[in-house]
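Question (not urgent): is this output format expected?
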Amino acid sequence: MSKLYVDEIQPKTTGNTSITGVTNAPAFEAQVTSNQTISDNTTTKVTFDNEIFDSDSKYDHSTNYRFTPTVAGKYFVYASIGVSAQADAQLQNMYAIIRKNGDTDNIKATHFNFAGNNARYATGYVSGVITLDSDDYVEAFVQCADSSGSAIVQQGNYTTFGAYKLIGV
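Got this back:
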C-alpha cells in the first residue's frame, strides 16, 4: 500500500484566478405556465414566465422574457419548445430559435418540416455555446405553420429555456 505525505495542499489555479468555489453562475431555467397562442408562420417570442431557478436574478420572467447575465463569458444556452396544432395533421413546420440582442439573424435555430405528413405536436430543441458581453441578452422564439392558422406553445415541461456560464473556456 502506498502512502502520500504532504505538508500543504494549494488550490489549482487557472492563470491568476483560483478555481476553488467557482460555479456555473449566473444560470437560470424557466418554463411557460399557460399555453401561448401564436400567429401562423410568424416568429414570436416565447413568454417563459415561471422561473424554475435563477441563481443571480438575471432572468426577466415578467416583462422581456430574456436572460441578461451581466457577466461576460461563454454560456451554454438551450430551449425546448413544444407546440401543438388545433387538430391532427395540421402542423406543417416549426422553428425553435435562440437570438442574441434581438438580432433577427438567428444565432441558433432548429427547423422541422413535416413534408406533407403534417403533425399535431412537435418539440423543437435548440442549444449552443454563445459568447455574451456584460450587456448582451438572449431570448427564445418559435415559428410554426399550422393549416388551422393558430398553433399553441405548450405549457410546463414541454417548454423550457435556460442558460449557464461555462467555466474554464
